[in-house]
Amino acid sequence: MSAIQTYVRKTAPRGRETEQVGPFLATYSPGTAHPMLNYAIPDDGAKPTPAEIDALTEAYRRRDLLPRLEYFTDVAPDLENLLVEAGYELERRVPLMTCAPAQRVGKPAPAGIRLRVPESAGDFRRMREAQNTAFGAPAEIGDEEVEQLKSGAETGVRHLLAEDVGSGAVVGGGLALEIVDGTTEVAGIAVLEPYRGRGIAAALTAHLTREVHEAGAHTAFLTPGDLGIGNVYARVGYRPAGECVHLSLP
Length: 250
Hints:
By secondary structure, this protein is α+β, with helices and mostly antiparallel strands. The protein is built from 7 helices and 11 strands. It has helices spanning 2-11, 50-61, 79-85, 121-134, 143-154, 200-214, 227-235; strands at residues 17-21, 24-28, 40-42, 68-72, 89-99, 113-116, 158-164, 170-176, 183-191, 219-222, 239-248.
């Protein structure tokens, strides 16, 4: 678990501003206040003092951001109680799932759906807008975010979109972050509601997982947002390996 948390600690700062606040790595994404793009990661074994928690809170408040943390509980088992005592609230508790090459199960795209790598700024924009819509967020994205997506693709991030062959509409997408020390994260798997239940999410996940394994990753991991999508990931070879918590101070 520590190796996976170390991976997150190394990759989360890419494209973000960071600072060390006591036993926390605080990350801030320029141009967006989205909570899932602005959060802190604790050091392994973190047992912050009340003053250190207050300092973390203030670091986010002065940027008009929600004070928020995401981390795997096994690496800092005492931290959740300390944060709750300081007023933080649990947003959600989600499983951590991992997949090794020997566990992987292939899933082809269903009939009428094509999986492909985004090739243009328009592709990246349509893919992210589909993902945002699927996650219940505002669809529109700015040119700056499009450029960030393109830059990430040039530095090892693998993007994959799902396209309706008949209409050409982008109906979903996902990504795998860069591989670091044999570990990578698969994330952002999303499919528009009218296209769900056809196996598109499973196909996206299986395709990305195969790519990173073939590129040298020995561990691919993800954190499903709910039981339903967790079952989808299980069908392509992912198995529970721990839990991740998200906490914030409203």
